[in-house]
Each structure stands twice: as structure tokens, then as C-alpha cells.
User: Which sequence fits this backbone?
């Protein structure tokens, strides 16, 4: 009889995700369901509000990708009202964007994903001197690698484990046979988990400097609310800018001398995962990091495009304004669409929640019925994967040298073919390689800002079209970005200076979507198919693949169940 494995909630993610996997008699996943069990209704909350305020609401969709919804939102309003931002605003937005990307990817690797590969309990058996030798071999330029350092850490870890209170490290499948790292590699990884935790609160100070705070820094329709003046102690001055430069230099150290070496070292033990978890084979990137205004897509550092069926010889163009391209379906989602409508472009999008699932607590969802709070976005009818892997592949297939260089180098280091990219391991590796590009782009954007300031340009906003009296009676716009988890866009319809409609289609909605009307799986579901589980009671393999996407369900379904009730309570690890 087929077995159904339920993981709910999936932990070490943001938001509320439930996965059900149906196994055949050999223990191989034959079908899978990804269900967002939370609804938040941001799109409904925005109706009737001032479009200039939308970013502040949208940004609070999520505390993880804390800046990207503000960025997509101001861009959508600016697009609708034909507002052009000054060059410094574009650069500061790029700096904010890249800071988020770098911080988020490092956090994902160490704090959300690493424990799928690293066995904390095995680290107790590590010899500190051997760990020191290993660390110096793996990352020769990372300073914290002495025997004493690892001895102290091993002592702390032992106290943790002996106390029976694992705290941060509670709830995992410790001792599972699928963990393959030797004890020393595990201890080194624990060390870097803690180093990354200390560092991530530093890098994000860049957001507080340019945006006043983090999470949820300030944005502005027309530019950035970042006053720059070399003559003032209260504005962003040279002392603050030098501080930013120091933070970027530290980030380069962390990424190049800790993250990338760790990624390659851990990956080398798990190359079998280069053949597991590929999934759809369709990849999409909206692109970002404009160099010549948001309208000039050809000048983005992160390119735009679509790859279908793993065909890296063709990058297809995409258009977010074309009603036939991006559409959302609700065939398996707890929403209602107008009579006769199956798929809607976001400008015509409708958000009417209608829960029809089982009364909680329930044992299982029905894959033939509606089963998620996520809609199912599709591109020209195709289910798509978005995120770092999609971006790396679009960059690589577009022939961009920077992308080709980092991808080729990593494939060489791991001694795996290019097809290895279409996998769980490929997804995790792509995130690291992207971080390497991003940290260099961060410095390049910083240098551009300094050059502009030296040339006498310190403008960060253009408020010529701030007053609603300057707006048309009705306007539509869209704004996009590449959030850490992938392609993100907001669509707005403004009428008489108020928001008439607002639709948000986020990366985790693409990746975690349920089936569509044609029965096509979303990216998570598809990636789980054909994966063998060694022990269905401890489905580590499911976590590895799902975590490789870096899920965020807060973003993806923009309010707990209608009455705030818990939709399910199932104890899992
Ligand atoms: Ni909350 Fe988000 C990102 C957005 S979700 S993390 O990245 O947008 O996919
Ligand atoms: Mg939406």
C-alpha cells in the first residue's frame, strides 16, 4: 500500500508550509503536494489606499526578504505614474538589494539549509587538531582555524548536548545514515554557523544607514529617503560611507573565504545530490540591478529571460505587461475566481479567499481538490522555477562572462558535468555562486555612488510628481525585482489617486505553487518526484530538496486561517 509522508510544518523556513509525499512500495516519491497553510490578505488590505504608502504595507509581507517588496512596490507606482528616479537613488536601491541578497543567502546556507547536510551530534566526535588542519586546507585565508578555537567550540557544543537542550540545534534527524560528513567537517561547519550568525547582524547595518532601519528599511516613491550631505553630522556623510565600505569588505571575506569554501567542501561529499531534485527544468528570471534606469533591461547585471525544458541554448524573452504571459490559476487553491475565468493576468487579478479544505485538525489533504492558500502562477501556461539557480542559468545561457566563469569554476572544482546544475545540489551551489557575484557588484555599486558624490551629485529623490494633482485619473503599472528566492513582481491599478487593485506574485508562490488546471505540478512538488526515502519516518531527503529552494510562505501567501485558528497541529521533526 502506498504510504503518505506528511511534513507539517516544514521548519527552518519562513511561514507555514506543509508537504505531503506519496511513496510507492520501494519508498520512492510518486506524487507530492505542497500546501501553504497560511493566508495574509495583503492584496485586500491595500485596496483604496494611497499608492505612495503601498511600499510600507507590502514590505511587511515578510521579515526575511525585508526590502524587496518595498522595492517592487515603489517601482510599480513609479511605472504607473511615469516617475524617473535620480541615478543615486538607483544605485542606493542596488546597494540595498545586494546587501539583502548577500545576507539572505549566507543565512540560508548556514542557518536554514546546512543542518540538512551537517550532523551536529557527530561533531562531538571531532578531534580539534584534525579540524584545525582541515579548516586550513579548505579555507586557507580564513583566520579562525586554530586547534584552540575548535577545542573551545567542541567544549561548548558538548555542554549543549549533555544538557539535553539543543536550543538552536533541536529538532533534526541527527544520526540519520544520509549524513556523510566526517566529524571534523561537521565541527568546522558548526563553527562557521556561529560565525555567520554574528556577521549577518553587521552586514545588514547597510540597510539602517541608507534606509533608517532593518528589518523594513524606508523607501520613497521617486527615489530614496537617504539624505546625503558631507557637511552634516545627521545625514549620510563620509564617516557613514566609509563604514559601509568596511562592511562590504568584511562581507567579501565571509563569502570568499568561508561560505564558498564550505559550500564546495560540503558539496563534494554529496555529489549524488547532483542527480536528485531537479524538477521542472523550466527557469525564469525577471532580472535586476539596473545600470541605466529600470526601463533598460539590456543593461541589467542580473539578466532577464526564460529557459524551457533545460534548453540552455535558448533564452526566451518575457514581458510582464503581456496578459498572455504571467497568469495565476486557482484550480487547486482556496480562492474563487469570477465565473468562466481560469487564469488571470495580475492586472485583472482577483483575491477572494474561500477555504474548502478539511476541518482541522486533519490527517491529509486531497490532491484532487483544492489544497493550498497559494495560487498557481504560470508563464505562458508553464510551471516555472525561479531563484538563484534560475538566475545563474539565465546568466550562463545568455553568455554573460561573469556567470560563465563562476559556474565553470565550480563545476570543475566538484568534477561534475553541467547537467549537475539541474538538481538539489545545483540549486544550493547556484545560491553560493550568485552570492560571490553579488558581493563584488555591491562594491562596484558603492564605488559608483562615491564617484557621483565626488562629481557633485548628491540628489537621491525626484518629487516632481509627488502630488496626486500631477497624476492621471487612472493608471496601471508594474514593478519587479529578483528577490533572494526569485522573480518577484507587483502590479498596480491606480484610480482617482487611490489603489483600485494590487496584485503580488512572489517567488515562493511560483516555486511552492500547487497544481494548475492541467494538473501540472509546481516546482517543489515536481522536484520531489522520484526521490527515494531511506527512512519514511525521518524524511531528511524531503527537507534537503525543499530547503534547497529556500521557502518563504509569508511572502507566498500574502492572516492565518480566516478566524486566526491553527489549521493543523502535527508533531514532526
Ligand atoms: Ni519572505 Fe520573499 C523572497 C519575496 S518569497 S522571502 O525572496 O518576494 O519567495
Ligand atoms: Mg498574490
Assistant:
Amino acid at each position: 500500500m502506498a504510504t503518505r509522508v506528511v511534513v507539517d510544518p516544514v521548519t527552518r523556513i519562513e511561514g507555514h508550509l506543509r508537504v505531503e509525499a506519496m511513496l510507492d512500495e520501494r519508498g520512492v516519491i510518486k506524487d507530492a503536494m505542497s500546501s501553504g497553510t497560511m493566508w495574509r490578505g495583503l492584496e485586500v488590505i491595500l485596496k483604496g489606499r494611497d499608492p505612495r504608502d503601498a511600499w510600507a504595507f507590502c514590505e511587511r509581507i515578510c521579515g526575511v526578504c525585508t526590502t524587496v517588496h518595498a522595492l517592487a512596490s515603489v517601482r510599480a507606482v513609479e511605472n504607473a505614474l511615469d516617475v524617473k528616479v535620480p541615478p543615486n537613488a538607483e544605485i542606493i536601491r542596488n546597494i540595498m538589494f545586494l546587501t539583502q541578497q548577500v545576507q539572505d543567502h549566507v543565512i540560508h546556507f548556514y542557518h536554514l539549509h546546512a543542518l540538512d547536510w551537517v550532523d551536529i551530534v557527530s561533531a562531538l566526535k571531532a578531534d580539534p587538531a584534525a579540524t584545525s588542519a582541515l579548516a586550513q586546507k579548505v579555507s586557507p585565508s580564513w583566520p579562525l582555524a586554530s586547534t584552540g578555537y575548535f577545542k573551545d567550540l567542541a567544549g561548548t557544543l558538548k555542554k549543549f548536548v549533555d544538557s539535553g537542550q539543543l536550543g538552536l540545534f533541536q529538532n533534526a534527524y541527527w544520526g540519520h545514515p544520509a549524513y556523510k560528513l566526517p566529524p571534523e567537517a561537521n565541527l568546522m561547519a558548526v563553527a562557521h554557523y556561529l560565525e555567520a550568525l554574528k556577521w549577518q547582524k553587521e552586514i545588514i547595518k547597510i540597510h539602517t544607514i541608507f534606509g533608517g532601519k532593518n528589518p523594513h528599511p524606508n523607501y520613497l516613491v521617486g527615489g530614496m529617503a537617504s539624505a546625503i550631505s558631507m557637511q552634516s553630522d545627521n545625514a549620510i556623510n563620509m564617516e557613514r560611507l566609509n563604514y559601509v565600505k568596511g562592511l562590504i569588505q568584511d562581507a567579501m571575506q565571509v563569502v570568499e573565504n568561508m561560505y564558498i569554501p564550505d559550500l564546495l567542501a560540503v558539496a563534494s561529499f554529496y555529489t549524488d545530490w547532483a542527480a536528485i531534485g531537479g524538477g521542472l527544468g523550466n527557469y525564469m528570471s525577471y532580472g535586476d540591478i539596473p545600470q541605466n534606469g529600470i526601463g533598460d533591461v539590456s543593461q541589467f547585471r542580473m539578466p532577464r529571460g526564460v529557459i524551457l525544458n533545460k534548453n540552455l541554448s535558448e533564452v526566451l524573452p518575457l514581458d510582464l505587461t503581456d496578459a498572455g504571459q504571467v497568469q495565476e490559476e486557482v484550480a487547486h487553491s482556496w480562492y474563487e475566481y469570477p465565473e468562466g475565468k481560469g487564469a488571470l493576468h495580475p492586472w485583472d487579478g482577483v483575491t477572494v479567499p474561500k477555504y474548502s479544505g478539511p476541518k482541522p485538525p486533519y490527517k491529509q489533504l486531497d490532491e484532487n481538490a483544492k489544497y493550498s492558500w497559494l495560487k498557481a502562477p504560470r508563464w505562458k501556461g508553464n510551471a516555472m522555477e525561479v531563484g538563484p539557480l534560475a538566475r545563474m542559468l539565465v546568466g550562463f545561457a545568455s553568455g554573460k562572462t561573469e556567470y560563465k566563469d563562476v559556474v565553470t569554476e565550480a563545476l570543475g572544482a566538484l568534477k561534475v558535468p553541467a547537467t549537475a546544475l539541474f538538481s538539489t545540489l545545483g540549486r544550493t551551489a547556484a545560491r553560493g555562486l550568485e552570492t560571490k557575484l553579488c558581493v563584488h557588484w555591491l562594491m562596484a555599486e558603492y564605488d559608483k555612488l562615491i564617484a557621483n558624490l565626488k562629481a557633485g551629485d548628491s540628489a537621491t529623490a525626484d518629487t516632481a510628481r509627488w502630488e496626486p494633482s500631477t497624476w492621471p485619473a487612472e493608471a496601471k503599472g508594474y514593478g519587479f525585482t529578483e528577490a533572494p528566492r526569485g522573480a518577484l513582481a507587483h502590479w498596480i491599478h491606480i484610480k482617482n489617486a487611490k489603489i483600485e487593485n494590487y496584485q503580488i506574485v512572489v517567488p515562493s508562490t511560483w516555486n511552492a505553487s500547487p497544481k494548475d488546471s492541467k494538473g501540472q505540478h509546481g516546482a517543489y512538488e515536481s522536484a520531489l518526484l522520484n526521490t527515494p526515502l531511506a527512512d519514511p519516518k525521518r524524511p531528511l531527503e524531503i527537507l534537503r530538496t525543499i530547503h534547497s529552494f529556500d521557502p518563504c510562505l509569508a511572502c507566498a501567501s500574502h492572516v492565518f486561517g480566516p478566524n486566526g485558528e491553527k489549521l493543523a497541529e502535527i508533531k514532526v521533526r
